[in-house]
């Protein structure tokens, strides 16, 4: 898979660590930076690339993961989930069809971050699962309201 990644200056170490690990897992990493302290800029860029299909999924990093999730979710077609556990990383795909996950360098240990990335990339969403109707409603609402 092609994985778009980006961060703000507060999370460059975690982004680098996870990017290297994801590459070792056999995925292609496309790095969008960032040295930009305005985390919304890189979150929007990664979101646009994922929504356009130029990357299969994305991973964003900031101090907590919250800010980049909020910014990315403003991009139509992006469904970003801030994850703090391996189980959440798995469910981001299986229950929510998230195409981006976010993590925080100030709140996530490096080994947990690698495990979350691996889990996130190990699963594929099944639209016929029990979550299908729930995810469909979110997508339907986004299309109705152009968000």
Structural notes for this entry:
The protein has about 150 residues and is α/β, with parallel strands linked by helices. It has helices spanning about 10-25, 40-50, 65-70, 85-95, 110-120, 130-145; strands at about 1-5, 30, 55-60, 80, 100-105. Strand 1 (about 1-5), helix 1 and strand 2 (about 30) form a beta-alpha-beta unit. It is globular. The relative contact order is 0.17.
Residue windows where pLDDT falls under 50 for at least 5 positions: none
Anisotropy-based shape: globular
Strand content: 15-25%
- Structural class designation: alpha/beta
**Rg estimate, integer Å:** 14 Å
Strand line-up in the sheet with most strands: 2-1-3-5-4
Pattern of helices and strands:
EHEHEHEHEHH
Largest sheet: 5 strands, parallel
Please identify which CATH superfamily we are dealing with. Sugar-phosphate isomerase, RpiB/LacA/LacB
Please name the CATH architecture.
3-Layer(aba) Sandwich
The total of beta strands comes to: 5
What CATH calls the topology is Ribose 5-phosphate Isomerase B, Chain: A
